[in-house]
Amino acid sequence: MSDQDNNFTLPPNVTCFSRSKNAQISERHLFLTRLRNRELPYQAFRKTADQLFDLIAEAMIPHLENHEVILTPIFRAGLSLLPVFMSKIENSRLCSIGVKRNEDTAQPEPYLFKVPPEIAADAKFVILEPMIATAGTMCYSLGMLKKQGYDLNNIEIISIFCALEAVDKLQNEFPQVHIHTEVVDPILDEHKYIVPGCGDFGDRYFGT
Ligand code: URA
After folding, report:
1. For an engineered disulfide with 68, which of 15, 22, 24, 123 has Cβ 3.0 to 4.6 Å away?
2. Which residue's alpha carbon is nearest to atom 5 within ligand 1?
3. How close is the Cα of 55 to the center of ligand 1, in Å?
4. Residue 1 pLDDT > 70
């Protein structure tokens, strides 16, 4: 199955870069194909992911102009997007969210939540998470931000591989949140990994 074949209908709060008609589309498909290749060594995986992050960060800049930007990587895989986004959005600040996925139950387990002080009322939270599988961790993180009183309309999620199941869950529970993803993949396997996906993004990016 190629990335062009995933042509199911997506809700309006989802932007899927690999479907858009833009100048870099063949380059984007090439990057995705490389990331999907489980034989690619971690150095090449990281380089390719960074090239894709660069395109995504550029595409996000118009959405973020005139706002304070709070970059919010979901630890650990979300940290991979941080250097590129920090270099493109120089005055961004960091919100740390650590939510661990229990590998047996696939349920979220929180261990860190730190928002910077005195942020503007219209600040945009840009949540960085390359793999959104069940959206359990994501919904948990959005719930924490909502509980603290942050406006969910000011949240943008950045992802590379988002499962269709996650799109549905986020649309049902947090329809005001916008998802910007490189691709939407149709299936989760029995371990809640995205299919075809790319395997464990954090392990592949960080070489662990
Ligand atoms: N996290 C990953 O790194 N990969 C998946 O497929 C799902 C969750």
Report:
1. 123
2. 193
3. 21
4. no
- Give pLDDT tens digits for 140-167: 999 989 998 999 999 999 999 999 999 9
Dump pLDDT digits (tens) for 87-140. Answer: 999 989 999 988 877 778 877 788 899 999 999 999 999 999 999 999 988 999
CB 138 within 8 A of CB 132: yes
β-pair type (96-101, 108-114): antiparallel
CATH number at residue 17: 3.40.50.2020
On whether the CB atoms of residues 166 and 174 are closer than 8 A, the answer is no
206 part of a folded domain: no
Q: Comparing C-alpha atoms, which of 142, 155, 93, 97 is closest to residue 118?
A: 93
Ligand 1 near 197 CB (within 6 A): yes
User: Domain count of the chain?
Assistant: 1
